[in-house]
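Now read these lines:
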Amino acid sequence: MNNWLTALFNQYLGGFANTVLGWFNFRAEDPAHPWETWLVMELVVAAILMIVVAFLRPSLSADKPGRLQHIFESLYGFLRGQAVDVGLEHPDKYINWLGTIFITILTMNLLGIIPLFQSPTMYVYVPAAFAVMTWLYYHSMGIRELGVLKYLAKFGGPILALAPLMFVIEIIGDVARMLSLSVRLYGNMFAGEQITTVFIGLTYLIVPALFMALHVFVSFLQAYVFTLLTMIYLSLGTSHEH
């Protein structure tokens, strides 16, 4: 599914994309249209966040914080409080990742509300990438916190005789977390995007506004759920069992 911005990228930057792919010995399925909509929308989100940071950074102040600073400080306090509530030890170590995940996913979810744009998270590749990165992150943090042997021992359970069986079961369940994270986010955003698009095409003003409001609610909810599950997985992976 292409949109106007993807068409512009393919028209004016298609050669550049093919050149970059060639550096890594890849070839686009359609060399005339190497840019995919989900990738273009991700670049739009990256540009939006960079602009927000460019406005925020020079105005940071401990004495007279502006509205934008208040919003991000409130978000920091909220995420940190949630991390503490789920039992994550030393949440300040992980707040950068948690904040990045929440803000990026939320911005991607909300992008679809803007006419002529689409949410990147309605394409399965994007939620899957976030899920894989999160999976790698909480495992790397667990290993860093506990060490390789102690971390792997967590998968064996408390009963030594059942450790081989429990290890296999735990590994399967752990890998399934990636599927759960990606499918939940993708399914909700894809459905929301399709419903909103259909009703905007069939009706005017009131009904589309209601569905757009629902889209905003789902966008916040899914970003929160993804981040909350990341906190829980981090808590389980980094906790010191006494």
